[in-house]
């Protein structure tokens, strides 16, 4: 695959700051000793603080549920900012982190979910580095169980039994151990087998890959591998070639790019390039000025950062939303689809939210729904292989990305994708049904994760996932819709009083999927209550302004469903 | 509620906002848009606001039929909405 289409952009730009990019930018400047170059650090602090929820945790986007990933990124980036621009952080975040601790010694991304090494790493760093607290003693037994037969470390103890080692899992586990012990405690793994596995991921050119069998070295894997080795007082087999490979990713006059052939410098490449050279003890003086200049050019008007020059920083969800809402001309549509189809990593075949980020299940469903890979059987088969062959969790469910614990949103999205791509095995379908069963709280009622609170959307997503796998009873869907039908119009996720666009969309999709009749007038009344003055749609009747491109897309698709043409609703999952 | 007095309703609604927003609510103009005037007044806070008004005055809001985004967008509109609902209840 070539990535020239990414050099410019024919996707849609949201113009918004992104938490992941803001964290990477702030850390890169800090590592270069250049955080003082940030023109208005207070605006960055304001953006980060806006992600905090009343439970003390932080969320990827304002209004979403808190998770360990966002909580670490926000609090760490705030700690890096100059004094006076940091906002407030402390005990409330600590209490939230402890609420996601699991009795097995690991941490979950959000309370109720299973432990995974991503979440455990984020939680341990937040507790120790930000809150000055100690993680639980049981952590070390949990970390010890991550070592797979090949010597590498896996996403969870269950993944380790399946032998799925990954450089990122090694980095997260080793850093969690190092953070918790100051690097002084007994190592919970067989050291020689672990370091050999890590060193074996270095290719002949000098860069690293994530997993055995991956074909393309990448800067992300190279940073994680060199960092993990340094925490073990080790180095790559060929450090000089590694440094040369990293420096080979620099664009003339610009910053770092991700892998050979990738044309665009971006914020995560700058983070990984600077981080890896720092871990290897290589000099940064000659490149610091141009990296700082590039990173600062990624600032947005909102106060944070996006992944590249804001005017070209398209993302897959926004682009899909515009396509699904019919906002493109024919030519623009073809270009936008081609742009989304290039948002695939060399070693992971799903679609990314932003180029160079890990492939994500929800984004892949949105891109496919919008028409990506419609006529590309090879790509569709690759997506099916990636889902069922690489990222399905041992509990049968799916998380947002590889290694993240399962949730119903991702599992339902995966079931839809597997149905469309036709690549599902009986075992993967059975696994989905097993995960869905684990989320059932009462007959016909489901939560997003096992042991969670039942909601309408989780129930409908569960029943649609069963419909795509082992079959489901439409009467259960009818019962769920009746329980959450709001008298005045629309459907509520919890109870039956406050309707919202996402739940009402999910209700219509589920009713259509199971062939249930529904009341068009009831839905029309609800849509009227969320339509905004500018022709967009709010997430709830409580807000007067549009919820952004994703809300506008769902509202527009419901309008089309209600139109005389009765256009079908794509089975989009969001939260 | 024994009377339909706008001033009393306004004071009680403002007290609910002060509980959540402190000083920012104390200087609130009756016609100020709450989402502009009060920091963090997003859809979740708006929901809490409506729920608090329901609890204070003892009625249920119809989230679709009552055009909540209009009636709960300013202190003055909320006061008027509450007054009409209380009158309806008394009738």
UniProtKB/TrEMBL annotation, chain A:
Keywords: Metal-binding, Prenyltransferase, Repeat, Transferase, Zinc. CDD domains: ISOPREN_C2_like. GO terms for molecular function: metal ion binding; protein prenyltransferase activity. The keyword Amino-acid biosynthesis does not apply. Signal peptide: none annotated. It holds the Pfam family Prenyltrans. It comes from the Bacteria. Gene3D superfamilies: 1.50.10.20. InterPro entries: PGGT1B-like, Prenyltrans, Terpenoid_cyclase/PrenylTrfase. Belongs to the protein prenyltransferase subunit beta family. PANTHER family: GERANYLGERANYL TRANSFERASE TYPE BETA SUBUNIT (PTHR11774), GERANYLGERANYL TRANSFERASE TYPE-2 SUBUNIT BETA (PTHR11774:SF11). This is Geranylgeranyl transferase type II subunit beta. The lineage of its organism: Bacteria, Bacillati, Actinomycetota, Actinomycetes, Kitasatosporales.
Automatic annotation (TrEMBL), chain B:
InterPro entries: ACP-like_sf (IPR036736), PP-bd_ACP (IPR009081). Residues 4-86 form the Carrier domain. This is Acyl carrier protein. It comes from Streptomyces alboniger.
């Amino acid at each position: 695959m070539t990535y020239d289409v990414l050099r410019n952009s024919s996707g849609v730009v949201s113009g918004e700051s992104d938490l992941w990019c803001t964290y990477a930018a702030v850390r890169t400047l800090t590592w270069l000793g250049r955080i003082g170059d940030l023109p208005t650090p207070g605006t960055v602090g304001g953006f980060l603080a806006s992600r905090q929820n009343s439970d003390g945790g932080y969320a990827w986007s304002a209004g979403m549920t808190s998770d360990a990933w966002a909580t670490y990124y926000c609090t760490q980036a705030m700690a890096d900012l100059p004094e006076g621009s940091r906002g407030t952080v402390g005990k409330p975040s600590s209490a939230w982190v402890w609420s996601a601790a699991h009795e097995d010694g690991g941490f979950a991304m959000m309370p109720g979910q299973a432990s995974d090494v991503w979440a455990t790493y984020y939680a341990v760093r937040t507790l120790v580095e930000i809150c000055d607290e100690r993680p639980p003693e049981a952590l070390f037994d949990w970390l010890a169980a991550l070592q797979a037969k090949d010597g590498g470390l896996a996403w969870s103890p269950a993944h380790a039994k399946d032998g799925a080692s990954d450089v990122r899992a090694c980095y997260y586990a080793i850093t969690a151990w190092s953070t918790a012990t100051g690097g002084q405690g007994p190592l919970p793994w067989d050291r020689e087998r672990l370091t050999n596995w890590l060193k074996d991921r270095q290719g002949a050119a000098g860069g690293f890959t994530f997993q055995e069998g991956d074909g393309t070295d990448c800067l992300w894997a190279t940073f994680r591998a060199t960092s993990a080795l340094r925490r073990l007082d080790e180095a790559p087999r060929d450090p000089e070639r590694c440094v040369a490979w990293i420096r080979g990713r620099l664009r003339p006059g610009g910053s770092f790019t991700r892998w050979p052939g990738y044309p665009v410098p971006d914020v995560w490449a700058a983070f990984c390039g600077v981080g890896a050279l720092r871990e290897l003890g290589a000099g940064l003086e000659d490149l610091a000025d141009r990296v700082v200049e590039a990173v600062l050019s990624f600032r947005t008007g909102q106060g944070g950062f996006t992944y590249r020059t804001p005017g070209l920083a398209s993302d897959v969800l926004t682009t899909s939303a515009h396509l699904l809402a019919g906002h493109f001309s024919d030519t623009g549509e073809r270009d936008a689809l081609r742009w989304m189809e290039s948002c695939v990593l060399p070693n992971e075949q799903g679609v990314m939210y932003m180029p160079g980020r890990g492939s994500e299940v929800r984004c892949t469903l949105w891109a496919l729904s919008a028409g990506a890979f419609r006529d590309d059987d090879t790509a569709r088969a690759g997506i099916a292989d990636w889902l069922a062959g690489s990222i399905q969790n041992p509990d049968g469910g799916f998380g947002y990305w590889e290694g993240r614990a399962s949730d119903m949103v991702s599992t339902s999205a995966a079931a839809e994708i597997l149905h469309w791509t036709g690549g599902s095995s009986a075992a993967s379908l059975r696994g989905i049904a097993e995960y869905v069963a684990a989320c059932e709280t009462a007959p016909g009622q489901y939560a997003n994760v096992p042991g969670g609170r039942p909601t309408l959307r989780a129930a409908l997503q569960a029943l649609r996932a069963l419909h795509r796998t082992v079959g489901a009873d439409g009467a259960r869907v009818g019962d769920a819709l009746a329980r959450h039908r709001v008298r005045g119009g629309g459907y509520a996720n919890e109870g039956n009083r406050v309707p919202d666009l996402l739940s009402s969309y999910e209700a219509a999709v589920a009713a259509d999927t199971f062939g249930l009749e529904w009341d068009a007038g009831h839905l029309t009344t609800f849509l009227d209550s969320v339509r905004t003055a500018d022709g967009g749609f709010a997430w709830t009747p409580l807000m007067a302004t549009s919820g952004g491109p994703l809300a506008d897309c769902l509202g527009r698709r419901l309008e089309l469903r209600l139109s005389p043409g009765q256009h079908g609703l794509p089975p989009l999952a969001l939260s | 509620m024994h009377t339909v007095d706008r001033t009393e309703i306004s004071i009680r609604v403002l007290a609910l906002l002060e509980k959540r927003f402190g000083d920012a609510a104390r200087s609130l103009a009756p016609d100020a848009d709450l989402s502009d005037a009060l920091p963090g007044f997003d859809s979740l806070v708006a929901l809490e606001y409506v729920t608090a008004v329901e609890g204070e005055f003892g009625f249920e809001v119809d989230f679709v039929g009552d055009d909540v985004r209009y009636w709960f967008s300013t202190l003055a509109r909320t006061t008027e909405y509450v007054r009409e609902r209380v009158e309806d209840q008394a009738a």
